[in-house]
Specification:
alpha/beta
Length: 606
């Protein structure tokens, strides 16, 4: 192994024996001066593909990163590995920022992390000019590159201005990285930020994540059972659409014994930052948040991501669920989904100030998300197909584990459509779902009596089905654009042109009838490693030691060592520094810093 080579740096600096996927190919391409677009799922190892080239090429690697917390954690992790790194962002005082700039000009740093807004300032551009003339610029790495897409879910205008890097510094290679980009977004990233890039696309599959969608009945109680009964004491993220819902759900979980914190843009900056710090540093906290929380969150041991409201696109869903199980251990993506989600998301699209083309695209993305939520086949197959990747049924989603029974619901659908039509014809205006279902089931409510709908031919023709069953059917008809919800007039139901084929018997409707979910299996990951050491006294001692070291250094525990490394140490029980160096994740600097302590803990365990 030649000193200074990519393989040497991987082993001696980061402590890993082999590259994953195409990491080595990306590194070779960027070291050779080429531009690259790297699509790799969260936890797939994107950072190595620019960190190692930055260490191999002359000068400093400049990493454009959108979040202060992510920069701080990345720099802390690099410092633990013995890499000279720093960040420039608004969290630094003027004196501290000036010190970083002096270190850069002196060639005393290998990597610097910069927010896009700061990089575009005249001061920072002059600094980059000085570096080009002095120590050199090794590369530009643009993380979370999907933010450049005007059609994307995380669009940030300043990312588009990063195109100036290729004009101002044409000799410096650029690498754009993201975990989430469909084919049009990839083309936009390449066109706006790079020059003749080589595109590297890893599998989007995260086999350790179990995907699960449940019908909303009592969503907060359903969430509580999922979090408290199935993931007690584990770290997780709960996403909600509205800020007030975040506050209410966090308080609800906390009142029922779950260590839950809120996070949304309506909170003051200090409270948000403190809650994020606690989530990253402590074990077993649950963050209840809007999508303002999460991009760049690097916590590896998040065991679940729950959605209490349906995301507006598969890209958003994939990005958010991808924050679970970054360590490769079993994790779960859980979503509660109901008709109100469809109505709300479509309403947000129509009421937005976006142009018609953007609204059409948003509608198509929402339809794809609805298709995933309503799917009766493998959810992973559908999810990967959206990103252009073929796959076989996974055996690790709710539909694979308990295949839903499909029943012919054409006749009930015709009854439902007829009732919507009859109610409107009789009264001259439409009605919302609750009233239509009451008429179907033959309920003599005050409203039914007021409008004389008990005299309709469809009154009571659907008494054989429960209200929940009718709502399930209605949700599917809305998802398939057979029925529309007119939110401008109190969410009344309207028939669409597509309903004609159903009423005429020209189109059949199949409805999923979901069986009760199976008992949870805590280690249901395909190819999961033996985790017997996870319950060993030595493993717990190692975790306690790591917590103390992390507190002393002011960094999250996983920055010191990941659970996987501690588990490997507990299983192997190395008795010498040489043997300890053979454990994945133990590089030279960490061996020097912590080797004696670790061997002492192993020896004391007997």
């Amino acid at each position: 192994m030649e000193p200074g080579s990519a393989q040497y740096i991987l082993k001696h600096t980061f402590g890993y024996d082999r590259f994953r996927s195409f990491q080595s190919d990306v590194i070779d391409h960027v070291v050779g001066g080429g531009d690259a677009l790297v699509l790799m799922p969260t936890g797939g190892g994107k950072s190595v593909t620019y960190q190692i080239p930055a260490l191999m090429r002359r000068g400093v690697g400049v990493v454009v990163s959108p979040l202060i917390a992510l920069m701080q954690n990345q720099v802390a992790a690099l410092d633990e590995a013995g890499v000279r790194a720093a960040f420039l962002n608004s969290s630094l005082s003027a004196a501290a920022a000036a010190m970083v700039e002096r270190r850069l000009r002196a060639g005393d740093l290998d990597l610097v992390y910069v927010a896009p807004e700061r990089l575009l300032t005249d001061r920072c551009l002059r600094l980059l000019d000085d570096l080009r003339r002095g120590p050199g610029l090794a590369l530009f790495a643009i993380d979370e590159a999907h933010c450049v897409s005007q059609w994307g879910h995380d669009f940030r205008p300043e990312y588009g201005q990063l195109a100036m890097l290729r004009e101002r510094f044409p000799e410096v290679p650029r690498i754009a990285l993201t975990a989430t980009a469909d084919v049009p977004t990839r083309a936009e990233i390449a066109d706006r930020l790079l020059v003749a890039p080589r595109i590297f696309v890893a599998s989007f599959d995260r086999p350790n994540i179990r995907y699960r969608v449940v019908e909303k009945r009592d969503p907060r109680e359903q969430l509580l059972r999922f979090v408290r009964d199935e993931h007690a004491g584990e770290a997780g993220i709960v996403y909600c659409l509205a800020r007030n819902t975040v506050d209410e759900v966090a308080a609800f979980l906390a009142a029922h014994g779950v260590r839950a914190l809120p996070y949304h843009a309506g909170m003051d900056a200090a409270s948000r930052a403190d809650n994020q710090r606690r989530f990253l540093a402590d074990d077993g906290l649950v963050m209840v948040a809007t999508i303002a929380f999460g991009m760049g969150i690097d916590k590896p041991d998040v065991r679940f991501v729950a959605h209490l409201d349906m995301p507006k696109s598969i890209e958003g869903y994939f990005q958010e669920t991808g924050r679970a199980g970054r360590d490769g251990e079993p994790a779960e993506a859980w979503m509660a989904y109901g008709l109100a989600d469809v109505v709300q998301q479509r309403r947000l699209i129509e009421l937005s100030d976006a142009d018609p083309a953007y609204k059409r695209l948003s509608g198509a993305k929402l339809d794809a998300m609805l298709g995933l939520a309503e799917a009766a086949d493998c959810r992973r197959v559908r999810l990967l197909a959206y990103f252009g990747e073929a796959s076989a049924p996974c055996g690790n989603c709710d539909n694979c584990l308990v295949p839903p029974e499909l029943v012919d619901a054409t006749e009930p659908a015709r009854k439902l459509l007829s009732t919507i039509y009859r109610c409107e014809q009789a009264s001259g205006f439409g009605f919302a779902a609750s009233h239509v279902i009451d008429v179907l089931r033959g309920k003599t409510t005050e409203k039914v009596g007021k409008f004389g709908h008990a005299r309709l031919s469809t009154f009571g023709i659907g008494a054989e089905l429960s209200e929940a069953e009718w709502r399930l059917l209605l949700r599917q008809l809305v998802a398939e654009h057979i029925v529309e919800v007119d939110y401008d007039t109190y969410n009344v139901l309207r028939l669409t042109e597509a309903s004609r084929a159903v009423l005429r018997g020209e189109r059949t409707i199949e409805l999923r009838r979901q069986a009760a979910p199976p008992a949870r299996r805590r280690r249901a990951k395909r190819g999961a490693p033996d985790t017997g050491a996870a319950d060993s006294p030595l493993f717990e001692r190692l975790r306690n030691w790591r917590a103390a070291v992390a507190k002393e250094h002011g960094v999250p525990a996983y920055v010191v060592f990941h659970d996987g490394t501690l588990r490997a140490i507990a299983e192997a029980r190395p008795s010498s520094l040489d043997a300890l160096a053979g454990i994945s994740g133990v590089g030279e600097k960490k061996l020097e810093r912590y080797g004696a302590d670790l061997l002492g803990l192993i020896d004391a365990a007997g």
